[in-house]
Amino acid sequence: MDPAEFLSLGDALWLDFVNTARDRVRPPADRLDSPAAYHRWLAGQRLRADADVPFTEVRHLRERLAGLAAALDGGQPPPSSAVEAINARLAGAGGHLRLMREGGSWRLDFAPAAPTGALAAIARSAAETLADERCAVRECAGETCSLFFTDDSARQNRDYCSPAACGHGRVVERRRGRLE
């Protein structure tokens, strides 16, 4: 896999998945334009492909999660279609709860019955982000960038997916006093 083929700047698996239809240039190129491209992305993420999942379902989940990212970035409630898509994927992940001792305290953990498939892992990543009140989803403020990323900073004031790539010029201008 060409390392430049897929960007992993979302700080969450599900956002990296969504970002395969977004880019740092406009109009964005769809990097998952075929099942072969999807399998290259899976390999780069070290995910196990789901058996017998049509590529149309992969694209459908990505569309729902893109809607979720856009809603969260806009301060809107999660679309019910995205929540339903996440829950449908999570429901297919069989396993059991187990009690684990960690660092002198107990915690409840979910143990999957089999290795997690890619779409269930992506859905779980989205669910974890949605359930984390300290984590915000943002769209990059770069002039040509449309990538989503998570902002779990204390002040939740991160503006760029990559400050070095998308925010560098703005930081330099701000230091020179050209921006307010």
What features would you describe in this structure?
The chain is of the alpha+beta class and 180 residues long. The chain has a domain at 13-133. It is built from six helices and four strands, in the order ααααββαββα. It has helices at residues 13-18, 35-45, 55-73, 80-91, 118-131, 168-175, and strands at 95-102, 105-112, 136-139, 148-151. β1 (95-102) and β2 form a beta hairpin. α3 (55-73) packs across α4 and α4 crosses α5. The longest helix has 19 residues, at 55-73. Mean pLDDT is 85; it is low at 171-176.
* Proportion of beta-strand residues: 5-15%
Biggest sheet layout? 2 strands, antiparallel
Portion of residues in helices? 25-40%
| Succession of helices and strands | HHHHEEHEEH
Question: Number of helical segments?
Answer: 6
Distance between the termini: 42 Å
Rg from C-alpha positions? 18 Å
Physical arrangement of strands within the biggest beta sheet = 1-2
What structural category do the secondary elements indicate? alpha+beta
Shape annotation: globular
* Average pLDDT taken over every residue: 85
| Poorly predicted sequence stretches spanning 5 or more consecutive residues | 171-176
Topology, number of strands: 4
